[in-house]
Amino acid sequence: MSVDPLNFAGRVVVVTGASRGIGRAIATRFAAAGATVIGFGRSVPAESLGYEFQACDVRDPEAVRAAIDAIGAAHGRIDAVINNAGGSPESDAATASPRFAERVIALNLLGPLYVAQAAHRWMQANGGAIVNIASVSATRPSPGTAVYAAAKAGLVQLTRSLAQEWGPTVRLNSIIVGYIATEDVATTYGSADAQAAIADTLGLRRLGRPEEIADAALFLASPMASYVSGASLAADGGNEWPSFLAILKAHSGR
């Protein structure tokens, strides 16, 4: 009888930034696959999300260690971590304060490191998988969110490096996330017309859905990806049409 590699029954999965958006979709997907899911966020949502939730600020290494150790002690294992917590506040790099830069880096780079470090020892007995949620900002210029882009680029490189350090027991991979239509889509990408214009620059001609990132995370954490480590999976709808081609077309009549 064949075993479903996407059945996570009996496995314990931690998802950070799990109260909304992509993180909520990821936690919901793992719960639907049978996993015991513990979501992290800075505060516990008032509504029931369908999985356990703990208040934990990933920027605080002591709080992270305490929360992860409590989960490991309660369940005897931690099988997967999805480091989703992050944010990309806009700021002019020339005038951004040191505190602003430190907070962005703490959330998007150091936080995932703290969570991974704390989970690492709980993965020694049974193995484990860590999936870090990165961004297309890690791979291209990101004016207005330069510090965020640098932090996400650092996260991709951290993933590659830890895959070497922690293998073969722990696998680490990252997902390069593109334009996703979360509940904040209007705030992030503007009006419906603006969203359509953005979508038209992508290979698939549409924005992504949070559930599609969740499916990618499920795959990377599953036995189906047992020989995948240190990789960066692009979930960006085919990336953006190069801007120079539009300029060339406008000025050459091609």
C-alpha termini separation: 58 Å
Mean pLDDT metric: 95
Amount of beta strand: 15-25%
- Spatial strand arrangement across the major sheet: 3-2-1-4-5-6-7
Spell out the CATH superfamily: NAD(P)-binding Rossmann-like Domain
- What's the multimeric state? single chain
Cα shape: globular
Q: Poorly predicted ranges (pLDDT <50, ≥5 residues)? A: none
Structural class: alpha/beta
**Assigned CATH architecture:** 3-Layer(aba) Sandwich
- Helix count equals 8
Number of domains: 1
Most strands sheet = 7 strands, parallel
Structure write-up:
With 254 residues, the protein is an alpha/beta fold. The protein has a single domain (12-252), classed as NAD(P)-binding Rossmann-like Domain (Rossmann fold, 3-Layer(aba) Sandwich), CATH 3.40.50. The chain has helices at 21-32, 61-75, 98-120, 146-166, 185-189, 192-199, 210-221, 243-252, and strands at residues 12-16, 36-41, 52-55, 80-83, 128-135, 170-177, 232-235. Strands 3-2-1-4-5-6-7 form a seven-stranded parallel sheet, with helices on both faces. α3 links the parallel β4 and β5. α2 packs parallel to α3 (98-120) and α3 (98-120) runs parallel beside α4. It is globular, with a radius of gyration of 19 Å.
Write a concise keyword list for the protein shown above.
alpha/beta; Rossmann fold; 7-stranded parallel β-sheet; 8 helices; 42% helix; 254 residues
Layout: helices, strands, pairs:
Blueprint (H helix, E strand, L loop, with lengths): L11 E5 L4 H12 L3 E6 L10 E4 L5 H15 L4 E4 L14 H23 L7 E8 L10 H21 L3 E8 L7 H5 L2 H8 L10 H12 L10 E4 L7 H10 L2
Parallel strand pairs: 1-2, 1-4, 2-3, 4-5, 5-6, 6-7
